[in-house]
Amino acid sequence: MEGASCTEPRGSVDAAPVLSELPSAPRRGSRSPAIERLLSPGPRSSRARLYWGLRWSQQESMPQTPPFSAMFDSSGYNRNLYQSSEDSCGGLCYHDNNLLSGSLEALIQHLVPNVEYYPDRTYIFTFLLSSRLFMHPYELMAKVCHLCVEHQRLSEGDSDKNQMRKITPKILQLLTEWTETFPYDFRDERMMRNLKDLAHRMASGEEQTYRKNVQQMMQCLIRKLAALSQYEEVLAKLSSTATDRLTVLKTKPQSIQRDIMTVCSDPYTLAQQLTHIELERLNYIGPEEFVQAFVQKDPLDNDKTCYSERKKTRNLEAYVEWFNRLSYLVATEICMPVKKKHRARMIEYFIDVARECFNIGNFNSLMAIISGMNMSPVSRLKKTWAKVKTAKFDILEIVIPFFSLLIKDIYFLNEGCANRLPNGHVNFEKFWELAKQVSEFMTWKQVECPFERDRKVMQYLLSVPVFSEDALYLASYESEGPENNIEKDRWKSLR
Predict the structure, then answer these.
(1) Where in the chain is the domain with CATH 1.20.870?
(2) Where in the numbering of this chain does the N-terminal Ras-GEF domain appear (predicted)?
(3) Residue 370 to residues 142, 331, 394, 459: CA-CA distances in angstroms?
């Protein structure tokens, strides 16, 4: 078995820190306001189809599987392609050789390798992704460890040591798949304890190779978790001081606020730096967060701790809230200038930035910029817009909200299909489709940003104070007075 490879989250969280000032909003239901905003009705257009190509450590002792893109393009998981036709346990339901459903226990046993069998890679990803809707990852880990130990114990009784040599690499490969694809599961001490116990059991054997591979797997996991902790600490640090900086902005705006054009006059450069931030934020989102974002609390379950443990979506929310921050930053930069011609020039600047984002393929920043220009405090500035060159308006008609579409697709798939069938089986057909959609994100987050970092520009984008919605309206009315009674009443309430 080859050594476990390691891919750590990209980006240096200590340089040009990945910080965001998160706009506050009232919570509604069990989903975060950031997720709620993405689920609100909006236009949709074409969507780039991205496919998943995660690394796979080739092993001569295991059945070889094609790339994820090829497997997820098919109608489902075909058991005849990747495993023996005999199931290791009952309780699985197939149609045309595609796995459609099964009892939870049968699906768990289907995940665990034995001497003659290793689960297909798409099955591993799909089950690890969806199983958290039915049980905690640490509960699944405990069951997997128990089954692995049982398989090892059966092999130990065999006089032929080759049986042991066959099962151990497969167990290690399953654990490597889990730690590489869902590393955040192992922030739970119960998960880590089970992993260490099983890893120690494998490393204590006669084979030196196993010991080395176990060490590589554990070191890689620890580095990933350390990078995540550092990233979250940096996010929290700025969030805690956001209120103070916004107060200074309101009382002495010129003391801390420069306009963005003095920091970065080139729209193409700004689009590049926005792309750095987008990809860095994406890279820290765990695929499981897309499932955990829509976990609904059982009304009969009074254990709030249990529910909150399954609702870990901090990195997904931080990414969505970056979208909100960028929208408010655009609106703030447009509403701040006193002179009409300066506001018009700022609008033209952001239109050029949006066009460069489109050319790069950074559709999320494109949509955030358009969203900022469409906010009411900006869109109501008729005299300002009259000075904007009309030739620049075409980019505003382009709508490709990739990330929001992904969130909506996952949400409506989750809401529209039952997790269990009437016979109590897990509806695995639903989870194949869920895995397909999340796999698109997995490819996108692996994109390497080809542009050089500009620390000064990134620092400005990530840390400069932005106005709240009320402050934006106030600045807008001060630039161009209220035109009707509704606007006049709102202006009075804000003064």
Answers:
(1) 63-223
(2) 95-222
(3) 48, 10, 12, 22
